Amino acid sequence: MESFVKKGLSYTMDLILAITLSFSLVYAFTSTFKLAYKAQNVFIAVCIASIIYSILFINKLSLKIFAICVSFILVGMLVTFFTNPLEITLFIKNISSLTALIDKQVNGEIVLSIRYQRNIFIALNAIIPLIVYIFSVKKFNFYILLIGGTSVFVGQWIVENFRIYFSFYIFLFIILIYYLKYIYLRNIKLSKENNKVPISFLISCIPICAIVLISSYFLSSRDNPIELSWIDSKARHVSNNTKKGSNTGSNNYFKISSTGFGDDNSRLGGNVSIDNTLVMKVEAPESGIYLKGAVKEIYTGYSWESKKFGSIKLGSMLELNNFDDDLFELLQGSKIVSNETNILEEGFDKSFIDITYENLDIKTIFIPSKVSNLSFEPENSLYVVKDLYGILFSESIMQKGFKYNAELYKIDKNNEDIYNLLRRSKQGLYSEYIEHNYIGSEGNEGSRDYVISLEAKSKDIYNEYLQLPNELPKRVFDLAFEITSSVNNNYDKAKAIESYLSQNYKYTLMPGSVPEDRDFIDYFLFDSKEGYCTYYASAMTILARSIGIPTRYVEGYVLPERSTDGIYEVTNKQAHAWVEVYFEGFGWMTFEPTAPFLESLNNTTEEQILNTQNKTKKEEEIDDEVEDSKPKNNNETLKEEVSNNVNDIESKSKLFIRITIQLLVVSLLWIFIVPYFKRKIVIYRLKKYSSKQEIIKIYKRLLRGLSLQGLKINIGETPLQYAQRVDEILDSNDLSFKTITDIFNKACYSNEPISKKEIQNIIDFYNTVPIYCKKKLGKLKYFIFSNILGVI
């Protein structure tokens, strides 16, 4: 009884360790696949799966029943594939589609439906606990567990999807215990004792492994175990002076193609390679804030370029004030449109954000629109330069830890008065104001100078930001006029173009390359009709310019939708391109044509767009269902119902017949073919290997066959006594069971090799047992035990 309790406790401990290891691996996969299941749900599912497997593997009979069921399923699938080749194609296609969907889910392009997520979750909990149970409980193999588990986490790290450290720590903890178990088993391998590991040993391993793991985790107080600051600084210095580019663009200036959006070869378009690198952390009151890193105004037909190469040196300072010319135009120019002196207070919300660089080596200082003040940390004092587009740079490269604060004004989206004022903006607004208000007037010289400078700036913008390539197809112009024909002001025209693009073009991160002989915008608008942010932003810029509205193409980052305690983690996934449209009296205003960012100027990130489109498709499907459910006349309804019922019955009948035939074929194969080949394989292995292990196995099979005839070995009976009793009952003149038992004892206890004659004696007796069983049991029982249960 005591031995039984010890075995039970030992088995329970093995099962607990298997469950824990399975949980660490399944939870790692669910995090990688971004499945919507919490840790407790994963643990419960793993427990259920492991307990089921422990029941299925509790003895050979239950294992055989399980194997028979699996065999039925597999053979049924094979029969289906061979009888209907189209099923193979469909199966392969479904697997490929599922793989592609999982890949997109992992890369953040889509969010899988609950049904798909549930199926993947079930598959993970069916496969992983089974493998872990086999190699940790039934047939312990440390190397398979180590290599298999390590491959999971190494694979996550390679594809930059190492998300849940909790799972990794659990895996390390369990694998340490298994390592000690492996050492223990290896040391007693040559002994005659049972190679089961005592539960006391496993329990004593737990605190040891816990101490090792906790000590290694808390040994260093820093994120990096060892930091050699002097060497790191020298390495960075050498790197900064030798490399021609970085992950943010050539010469350490930002460009979106280096973040994974498009090919980094100056040509627009191409498939996106998602990059999860964390580039900055931003503490902000809300999402929807755009951080500019580059502005371009020259469109070549296949790329965007900048022609302004001058810069303004602002100097070395800890704080920048009144450097944004765009904010100055809003402050002064809006008075002309509204006669209001406090438009910033009436129509704009003042916000403060803190930006901290993470994995960046860059000179660009990312800033929002309408920024009034920048302040840097004392240790981050730098020499600031402003280019002719209003983008800020440092003369030195900024790296991880660089931090600054920005004070900005963001338009109040709920203030309709602001949008009405934007509708009053037009080309020549400043010139008209000067003509009507300052002719012959005296005084207000300061205000007059402000308006004159704004007028000059406006003329320069209209000269520079209406550029179009000479080869631009005429149908692009025609489309722009068609979209805006129903409105009569620049703001509504820009909104019409923005809305048209966001509603009529499909968002995808895999649009393919644009043919080299095609204009990028023309190909997107009229042929492919799908793309990502650079496609939408480029198209709106060109369409707006086609009808005389100054527009420019902008690249940078946007804050993701979700934050942790107000801190937004910005990765290269949030790299984005958008549009700025110029309005006299307001300056440059942000527009978002990328579907479906339109609703809230990026309350949605790039990785969530496809999910929104999926929802739209579902809504369309619902509309179709509603249309189908509209009432029809009684005769049509009756005919449709009868037809549907007949078709349904025929379909179900065919399916039933098909399944029945498959089951019959599988059953016949199992009953008549499998037992025959099974016996042949046993004999073949005995002849080929002539090993003592094979003899022991076949002797056990003989004991099973004899026990079915009522010839069980009695308690206290030696193998020799049992063999003599069997010979008396069977009365075999050809070969005695005692001879077979002698060979068995020789295989177990002697170092002498087994001769070929002895092998043949075993085979001959093995072939005679079924004859005796059939006489003793009768044909029906023999058929059941031999062909169905396979125990003879």
Automatic annotation (TrEMBL):
Which InterPro entries does the entry mention?
Answer: Bact_TGase-like, Papain-like_cys_pep_sf, TgpA-like_C, Transglutaminase-like
- The segment(s) forming the Transglutaminase-like domain are 525-595
The answer on whether this UniProt entry bears the keyword tRNA-binding reads no
Q: Which UniProt keywords apply?
A: Membrane, Transmembrane, Transmembrane helix
Q: Where is this region: Disordered?
A: 611-636
| Leader sequence segment | none
**Chain ranges passing through the membrane:** 12-30, 42-58, 65-83, 116-135, 142-159, 165-185, 197-219, 655-677
Q: Does the keyword Transmembrane helix apply?
A: yes
Query: What SUPFAM superfamilies does the annotation carry?
Result: Cysteine proteinases
Instruction: Spell out the protein name for this chain.
Output: Transglutaminase-like domain-containing protein
Q: What is the lineage of its organism?
A: unclassified sequences, metagenomes, ecological metagenomes
